[in-house]
Amino acid sequence: MTQSAPSTAPSAAQEFRLPDVGEGLTEADIVAWRVKVGDTVAVNDVVVEIETAKSVVELPSPYAGEVLALLVAEGETVEVGTPIIRIGEPGAAPAAAEPAAPVTEPATEPAAEPVTQAAEAPAPSASSGPEVIDTNVPPTGQATLVGYGPKQRALKRRARKGATTDPTAAPAEALSPAATDPALEEPATPARPPRALAKPLVRRLARDLGVDLTTLTPTGPRGTVSKEDVLAAAGGTASGQAARVAPPAVAADPAGRETREPVKGVRKQMAAAMVASAYSAPHVTEWVTVDATATVDLVARLQERPELRDVKVSPLLVIARACLLALRRTPLVNSTWDEAAQEVVVKHYVNLGIAAATPRGLVVPNIKDAHELSLVDLAGALDELVTTARAGRSQPADLAGGTFTITNVGVFGVDGGTPIINPGESAILCLGAIRKQPWVVDDEVVPRHVMTLSLSFDHRHIDGATGSRFLADVAGLVSDPATALLF
Amino acid sequence: MTDPVFGPAPEQAADPELVQLLTPEGERVHHPAFDLDFSADQLRGFYRDMVLVRRLDIEATALQRHGELGLWAQLLGQEAAQIGAGRALRPQDFVFPTYREHGVAWCRGVDPVQLLGLFRGVDQGSWDPNEHNFALYTIVIGAQTLHATGYAMGVQRDGAVGTGDPDRDTAVVAHFGDGASSQGDVNEAFVFAASYNAPVVFFCQNNQWAISEPFERQSRIPLYRRAHGFGFPGVRVDGNDVLATYAVMQAALQRAREGQGPTFVEAYTYRMGAHTTTDDPTRYRLSNDVERWKLKDPIARVEAYLRRNGLADDAFVAEVAQEADVLGERMRRECHALPDPAPRDIFSRVHVEQTPELAAQQAAYDAWVASFEEVG
Question: B62 to chain A nearest CA, in Å?
Answer without folding.
Answer: 6
